[in-house]
Amino acid sequence: LLRWNEVRYRKKGLPPGTMGWPVFGETTEFLKQGPNFMKNQRARYGSFFKSHILGCPTVVSMDPELNRYILMNEAKGLVPGYPQSMLDILGKCNIAAVHGSTHKYMRGSLLALINPTMIRDQILPKIDDFMRSHLSGWANQVINIQEKTKEMALLSSLKQIAGIESSSISEAFKTEFFKLVLGTLSLPIDLPGTNYRRGFQGRKNIICMLEQLIEERRASQEVHQDMLGCLLSDENRYKLSDEEIIDHIITILYSGYETVSTTSMMAVKYLHDHPKALEELRKEHLAIREKKRPEDPIDWNDLKSMRFTRAVIFETSRLATIVNGVLRKTTQDMELNGYLIPKGWRIYVYTREINYDSFLYPDPLTFNPWRWLDKSLESHNYCLIFGGGTRQCPGKELGIAEISTFLHYFVTRYRWEEVGGDKLTKFPRVEAPNGLHLRVSHLAN
Ligand code: HEM
């Protein structure tokens, strides 16, 4: 019986590897040993091996060339393969759940909201305004930077999407959104008290709030310069149903939440530990401030001039590996790398290891933002920090703009010390289980 998985998935032509225990497969080993599980399996079976993790038969690909191929070839039947709980809670119109021409349309509609012109003219002023107030009053306090950056990512998006400021509605939204996030990473068991049930409830309540907002907007006929305003506008060439609009908004909130907040928190951590990098970064931001009056916002040209900041963001994403990889699934039996992969199997495009490749990144375990000043590194074929192919992150520049503005106000206003003793885990996600506490003071003191 214990060999059930091995027997069940015995088929000619499959890649090498082990399938683990019935039902659980190798999920426990994967979650407990994390990157070491992957490295051990690779040492035994090579860069393309089978396993059974998170409830599905899965092929793990750690080969950079093949990873790229998989991401570039969605049309051959390699579509997103995120867990059911995530699809249920993010909605059936969310971008990861749609393929082919529907995906193209939804993506086009999203890019129309967050392209560089929109960032320059509409979004950046909102981000600036938000960061100024979010980062005020932190001096002479102990703050939990993890909590602050999480709040920041959510509230900044809410402001961009619907002009929602910190208020009772954003508080109510926050509570429901946090439930939704937990639910997307749970086992899809719909019983009272489970994270899945709570996540679903969170989704329902968020839908109610968004429906109400849409109704109010339609009734008032006022023109709003925000993402919802664009989505509802008659002039928008991408016509979406209300259900699609709502799932779009949930997707934007969700995709930019953990990525932006964790990168911001880890940038603060690395800068704390590397005073030379902090000095260089602060120099860049103080030079921008010097040319402005205190009330002047960060504009597009300032953002473009933040070369070292961009390098810090890339180096943080690389070294902390905020995204370990992306998931695909096969829509038909197919041949890949000389093996036969059955229909419905997951493909885990595991991009973590390439972040520590000493050929691409000499001295890979050192935090060295300077390496990214060579711009060709960002566009290297194997650099998959923001994914690749038809699903490459459409929010890349928006995320960078948010983190850059956050860093701008943080390093020009404050200095900080870690209180110490906080734990950081790196896998399966980067987080500080009990928070990351900083003692903050005014920069001038
Ligand atoms: C530092 C910040 C960010 C990182 C590291 C990041 C990373 C990624 C990665 C690796 C993917 C590929 C997923 C896949 O192939 O399955 C992705 C996709 C995506 N990202 Fe981001 N992201 C960031 C910020 C954002 C922001 C701010 C948004 C807000 C709009 C966003 C929206 C999306 C969307 C909608 C997709 C799916 C695209 C599609 O399926 O066509 N991301 N992101």
From TrEMBL:
Protein name, UniProt field: Cytochrome P450 85A
GO MF terms held by the record: heme binding; iron ion binding; monooxygenase activity; oxidoreductase activity, acting on paired donors, with incorporation or reduction of molecular oxygen
Cofactors that this protein relies on: heme
Parts of the chain that traverse the membrane: none
Bilayer topology term: Single-pass membrane protein
Gene Ontology cellular-component annotations: membrane
PANTHER family on file: CYTOCHROME P450 26 (PTHR24286), CYTOCHROME P450 FAMILY PROTEIN (PTHR24286:SF341)
Superkingdom classification of source: Eukaryota
Gene Ontology process terms (BP): brassinosteroid biosynthetic process; brassinosteroid homeostasis; response to light stimulus; sterol metabolic process
Positions annotated to bind heme: C393
Keywords: Heme, Iron, Membrane, Metal-binding, Monooxygenase, Oxidoreductase, Signal, Transmembrane, Transmembrane helix
Cellular localisation: Membrane
Organism annotation: Prunus avium (Cherry)
PROSITE patterns named among the record's database cross-references: CYTOCHROME_P450
Family label: Belongs to the cytochrome P450 family.
